[in-house]
């Protein structure tokens, strides 16, 4: 709050992006509640969808492989140590017969989606481990990624580095003819690898798009329900995990789907009709409670529109004139295009904040561990930035010819 006031942007804040820990989401003393109280207005609660999917992945992994007592996964350590002995050309893609039968459509969808992303047809991949995961999925499914077959050396496998679970398991599956596994480990790797490839990879990659957030979550839930015939264990655990995090399947945020190309026009018609039938009303709970029944998976997005949905438009100050127009003509409506630009700019993941903190923490601990020296370093950096406010060559030359005193700053 101090920072918001110092920067004079408190009146421009419309939402909060956060990890769904109790320290943030607590009903009485959570950071989100306290910030709303101090700002004196309602905000959109934009739970980090990457964090939610991390929880889903972690719960499924723990159920299949069992709990671990240490900070690392022993299976991954063994595989990393064995890696130099592998013949990387002798990998074996998944040969489960179900991929040729009941799961063939899911397999083809996963391959098409991954290759489309890897070819750059659907946006930029922010991290190389995302690219590695997509390439491993394609190879695991028996196809060749655009850059060809290439396996990276296994990296860190601490529990906190949850992406390692996806990367390690897919690699282990394809090299288990060379790397010895127990029967339990082999089964767990196969089940987890198929879950990642067929169900998990697509929601993870596409979850950064604000407009698609509600429909993507609903599609994921429906896919998990359908997956019961393949793995009842994976389906139940994953549904229970995401059922605790239905932030975007709420009255407050369901209107995001009005701006998604993934939502059919007939569903948008139903959403608009329910919006017009319901009068504005504050929402008491920002998420829908999932009970394990099929009512969520059997409903379309219009089911989640209600009185609290009007809060979405009021908080974002969206002109709702387009709601009175035909859905098929929205793309020609100025009010709709302006609203879509606003909605698309919403951050439904807090990756940038996490990376910033991780970078600062790593730098902070790597330079020196002595607090006094650390403070001296900060003072030098601050002084240097005052003297050289930008990285332009002309600025450097000007300072170097300014009475000679800047040479001391350069040496510092």
Structure description:
The protein is mainly alpha-helical. Among the domains are: 72-208, no CATH class; 370-411, no CATH class. Helices cover 52% and strands 2% of the residues. The protein contains 18 helices and 2 strands. It has helices spanning 2-7, 22-25, 31-39, 49-65, 74-82, 104-118, 128-140, 163-174, 183-206, 213-226, 232-243, 265-277, 310-315, 334-344, 351-367, 371-387, 393-400, 406-411, and strands at residues 15-18, 44-47. The protein has a two-stranded parallel ribbon. α4 runs antiparallel to α9 (183-206), α6 packs antiparallel against α7 and α7 (128-140) runs parallel beside α8 (163-174). The protein starts with a helix and ends with a helix. 30% of the residues are buried.
Task: Supply database-style keywords.
412 residues, mainly alpha, two-stranded parallel sheet, 18 helices, 2 strands, 52% helix, globular, disordered C terminus
What secondary-structure arrangement, pairings included, does this model have?
Layout: H1 2-7, E1 15-18, H2 22-25, H3 31-39, E2 44-47, H4 49-65, H5 74-82, H6 104-118, H7 128-140, H8 163-174, H9 183-206, H10 213-226, H11 232-243, H12 265-277, H13 310-315, H14 334-344, H15 351-367, H16 371-387, H17 393-400, H18 406-411
Parallel strand pairs: 1-2
């Amino acid at each position: 709050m101090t920072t918001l006031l110092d920067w004079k942007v408190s009146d421009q804040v419309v939402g909060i992006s956060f990890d769904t820990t109790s320290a943030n989401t607590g009903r009485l003393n959570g950071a989100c509640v306290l910030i709303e109280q101090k700002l004196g207005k309602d905000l959109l609660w934009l739970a980090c969808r990457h964090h939610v999917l991390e929880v889903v992945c972690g719960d499924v992994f723990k159920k299949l492989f069992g709990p671990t007592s240490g900070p690392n996964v022993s299976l991954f350590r063994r595989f990393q140590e064995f890696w130099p002995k592998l013949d990387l050309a002798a990998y074996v893609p998944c040969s489960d017969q179900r991929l040729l039968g009941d799961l063939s459509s899911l397999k083809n969808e996963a391959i098409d989606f991954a290759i489309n992303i890897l070819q750059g047809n659907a946006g930029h991949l922010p991290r190389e481990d995302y690219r590695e995961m997509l390439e491993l999925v394609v190879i695991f499914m028996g196809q060749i990624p655009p850059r060809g077959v290439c396996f990276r050396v296994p990296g860190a496998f601490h529990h906190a580095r949850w992406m390692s679970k996806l990367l390690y398991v897919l690699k282990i599956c394809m090299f288990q003819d060379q790397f010895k596994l127990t029967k339990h480990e082999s089964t767990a790797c196969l089940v987890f690898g198929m879950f990642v490839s067929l169900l998990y990879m697509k929601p993870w990659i596409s979850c950064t798009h604000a407009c698609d957030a509600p429909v993507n979550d609903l599609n994921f839930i429906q896919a998990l329900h359908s997956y019961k015939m393949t793995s009842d264990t994976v389906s139940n655990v994953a549904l229970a995990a995401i059922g605790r995090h239905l932030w975007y399947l709420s009255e407050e945020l369901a209107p995001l789907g009005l701006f998604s190309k993934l939502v059919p026009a007939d569903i948008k018609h139903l959403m608009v009709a329910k919006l017009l039938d319901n009068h504005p009303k504050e929402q008491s709970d920002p998420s829908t409670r999932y009970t394990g029944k099929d009512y969520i998976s059997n409903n379309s997005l219009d089911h989640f529109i209600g009185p609290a949905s009007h809060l979405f438009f009021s908080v974002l100050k969206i002109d709702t004139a387009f709601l009175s127009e035909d859905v098929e003509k929205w793309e020609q409506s100025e009010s709709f295009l302006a609203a879509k630009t606003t909605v698309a700019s919403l951050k439904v993941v807090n990756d940038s904040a996490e990376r910033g903190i991780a970078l600062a923490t790593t730098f902070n601990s790597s330079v020196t561990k002595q607090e006094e020296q650390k403070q001296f370093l900060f003072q030098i950096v601050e002084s240097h930035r005052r003297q050289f406010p930008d990285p332009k060559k002309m600025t450097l030359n000007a300072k170097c010819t300014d009475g000679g005193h800047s040479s001391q700053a350069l040496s510092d």
